[in-house]
């Protein structure tokens, strides 16, 4: 139909897929998702498969909308609350408000509580506990694709050198009037964007078969700057993610054996029962992994930009380590911007 808005979403990480999903729930859009990497792929520049994908709000008071909206949707989607998330805090690598003594998200979770000093791990200052969600990314990303296909979205692979190339990639053959740029770190070098504010935050993890609950997330470790402690068991046989690192500016996607040894040692010290009291030797390793979190100086870029007289780009990238837990909030922002473009387009006809 001539009045249908042709939309091409570039990027198939959690931000791109969720943006496409929310758009597909509205009538009048013909949507195509184009991406170099797809769910099922494992490559360091495709961060979404490697994420711990749990819920630990990181926004400040002014930006709480994105995570608040996402939490309510993830809570609705979850058939069961998979894991109990324990948040053990010092100030090392995470935003200060994440471990504030009075965080805004106290009221977001039904059972949020501060833990007494006796329940805080040695070496840490404070702790809180609440029931959250830990997403099995190997299940969730393909699920998103399935929802898109059900809604008539076309998903295909492609490598773009310049954002303008997306204009011709819609499955209808008509040029796109809206391009959603959800390329994450790819926007650092993508022609027509080339955002110098983007930078990687390297995250190395170990995925093991061992199980343990509740989850643990600590903001740093005694092993030095950029090294953290987290233990996140995924539902549905997804294994347990042991982490990790928060290495700003490091583009290396190869796992470091020495870092891996420290990650595993930290995890079994915090949860000796997980390994049957055998230390690192008691861990059953599935794989070692590295993902590059797409961080951005100045925060997430969620805005519209004219490509030419007929096409507008809506940017949605730079989510760092909080892509999953803000995915629905920012996707709703994309829908709002695309809606504005559509209304303005209709007014000119």
UniProtKB/TrEMBL annotation:
<keyword id="KW-0285">Flavoprotein</keyword>
<dbReference type="GO" id="GO:0019478">
    <property type="term" value="P:D-amino acid catabolic process"/>
</dbReference>
<feature type="binding site">
    <location>
        <position position="183"/>
    </location>
    <ligand>
        <name>FAD</name>
    </ligand>
</feature>
<protein>
    <submittedName>
        <fullName>D-amino acid oxidase</fullName>
    </submittedName>
</protein>
<dbReference type="GO" id="GO:0071949">
    <property type="term" value="F:FAD binding"/>
</dbReference>
<feature type="binding site">
    <location>
        <position position="293"/>
    </location>
    <ligand>
        <name>D-dopa</name>
    </ligand>
</feature>
<feature type="binding site">
    <location>
        <position position="321"/>
    </location>
    <ligand>
        <name>D-dopa</name>
    </ligand>
</feature>
<keyword id="KW-0560">Oxidoreductase</keyword>
<feature type="binding site">
    <location>
        <position position="230"/>
    </location>
    <ligand>
        <name>D-dopa</name>
    </ligand>
</feature>
<comment type="similarity">
    <text>Belongs to the DAMOX/DASOX family.</text>
</comment>
<dbReference type="InterPro" id="IPR006181">
    <property type="entry name" value="D-amino_acid_oxidase_CS"/>
</dbReference>
<dbReference type="InterPro" id="IPR023209">
    <property type="entry name" value="DAO"/>
</dbReference>
<dbReference type="InterPro" id="IPR006076">
    <property type="entry name" value="FAD-dep_OxRdtase"/>
</dbReference>
<keyword id="KW-0274">FAD</keyword>
<dbReference type="GO" id="GO:0005737">
    <property type="term" value="C:cytoplasm"/>
</dbReference>
<dbReference type="Pfam" id="PF01266">
    <property type="entry name" value="DAO"/>
</dbReference>
<dbReference type="GO" id="GO:0003884">
    <property type="term" value="F:D-amino-acid oxidase activity"/>
</dbReference>
<feature type="domain" description="FAD dependent oxidoreductase">
    <location>
        <begin position="7"/>
        <end position="336"/>
    </location>
</feature>
């Amino acid at each position: 139909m001539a009045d249908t808005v042709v939309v091409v979403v570039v990027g198939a990480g959690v931000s791109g897929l969720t943006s496409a999903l929310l758009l597909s729930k509205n009538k009048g859009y013909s949507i195509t998702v184009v991406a170099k990497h797809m769910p099922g792929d494992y490559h360091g520049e495709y961060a979404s498969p490697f994420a711990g994908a749990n819920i630990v709000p990181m926004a400040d008071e002014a930006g709480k909308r994105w995570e608040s909206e996402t939490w309510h949707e993830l809570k609705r989607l979850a058939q069961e609350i998979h894991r109990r998330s324990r948040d053990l805090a010092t100030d090392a690598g995470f935003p200060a408000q994440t471990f504030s003594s009075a965080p805004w998200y106290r009221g977001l979770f039904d059972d949020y509580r501060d833990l007494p000093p006796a329940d805080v791990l040695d070496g840490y200052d404070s702790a809180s506990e609440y029931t959250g969600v830990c997403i099995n990314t190997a299940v969730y990303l393909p699920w998103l694709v399935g929802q898109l296909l059900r809604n008539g979205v076309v998903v295909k692979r492609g490598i773009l050198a310049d954002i303008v190339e997306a204009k011709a990639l819609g499955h209808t053959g008509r040029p796109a009037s809206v391009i959603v740029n959800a390329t994450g770190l790819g926007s650092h070098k993508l022609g027509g964007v080339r955002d110098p504010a983007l930078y990687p935050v390297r995250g190395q993890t170990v995925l093991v078969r061992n199980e343990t609950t509740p989850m643990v997330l600590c903001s740093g470790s005694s092993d030095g700057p950029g090294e953290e402690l987290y233990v996140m068991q995924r539902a549905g046989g997804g294994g347990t993610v042991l982490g990790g690192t928060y290495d700003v500016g490091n583009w290396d996607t190869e796992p470091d054996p020495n870092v891996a040894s420290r990650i595993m040692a930290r995890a079994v010290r915090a949860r000796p029962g997980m390994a049957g009291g055998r230390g690192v030797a008691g861990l059953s390793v599935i794989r070692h992994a590295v993902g590059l979190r797409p961080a951005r100086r100045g925060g997430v870029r969620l805005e519209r930009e004219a490509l030419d007289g007929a096409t507008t780009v809506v940017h949605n990238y730079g989510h760092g380590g909080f892509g999953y837990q803000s995915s629905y909030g920012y996707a709703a922002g994309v829908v709002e911007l695309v809606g504005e473009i559509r209304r303005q387009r209709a007014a000119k006809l």
